[in-house]
Amino acid sequence: MNPTYDFKGKVALVTGAAAGMGLAAATAFAEAGAAVVLADFKEEAVTAAAQRLAAAGHKAIAVRCDVSDDAQVAAMVERTVAEFGRLDAAFNNAGVMAKIAPTAESSPEDWERVMGVNLRGVWNCMRHELRQMERQGGGAIVNNASVGALTGNPGIGAYIASKHGVVGLTRTAALEYVKKGIRVNAVNPGLIDTQIARDVVDGDAGAYAEMEKGTPIGRAGRPEEIAAAVLWLASSAASYVVGQAITVDGGMTVP
């Protein structure tokens, strides 16, 4: 059973919220009492997700946003504040997987696409979130990195590089803004049962099952298990946690 946190009167923003870890985190924030903005470039899916939360009695709206586009990110944060008055917590989760190819055979287009969403997208979001949180006197940001930020992985160089960058950006911003009442941290998910994880093996069910068996815990993680870590990091329970990348991987990276 996941612990519960009180986010009543708080406002949370989640990117990549149409499915997977983003949707799980948005749902958890809503169930903990927060007003939630669900953002994703998949407009129909994220709108449906927000409508389900609203129908269950939660405060939730959807915003279409491509996080690689700074103007869209600025509009997303502006909409959040216009709708709910403030921004207390953000989970910068939106991400894409690289096409599987050795480094010398990967394309500039794929590099730009992955870096644009996974790294520049987090930077775009943080810039506007930090400004708002600084104006109001505090907040908490959690960035979604990956166990790929801790090691290499053949065939997905752009993805690995982007996630290393997310952790470096997280640590730097954490030191810059902690004295302004803003805590910045990250999560490093391991194998989580999402579409991106299945894309790594090109949808091969057998290969995916082998990946699951290869984790010390013997299974893929659930998106809700990442959401629990995100809510903890965003809550007052983690008030002394600054600039950390918390690994949630079922033992995958234990030496």
From TrEMBL:
Coiled coil: none annotated. InterPro entries: NAD(P)-bd_dom_sf (IPR036291), SDR_fam (IPR002347). Residues 1-30 form the signal peptide. GO terms for molecular function: oxidoreductase activity. Keywords: Oxidoreductase, Signal. Pfam families: adh_short_C2. Belongs to the short-chain dehydrogenases/reductases (SDR) family. PANTHER family: DEHYDROGENASES, SHORT CHAIN (PTHR24321), ESTRADIOL 17-BETA-DEHYDROGENASE 8-RELATED (PTHR24321:SF8). This is 2,5-dichloro-2,5-cyclohexadiene-1,4-diol dehydrogenase.
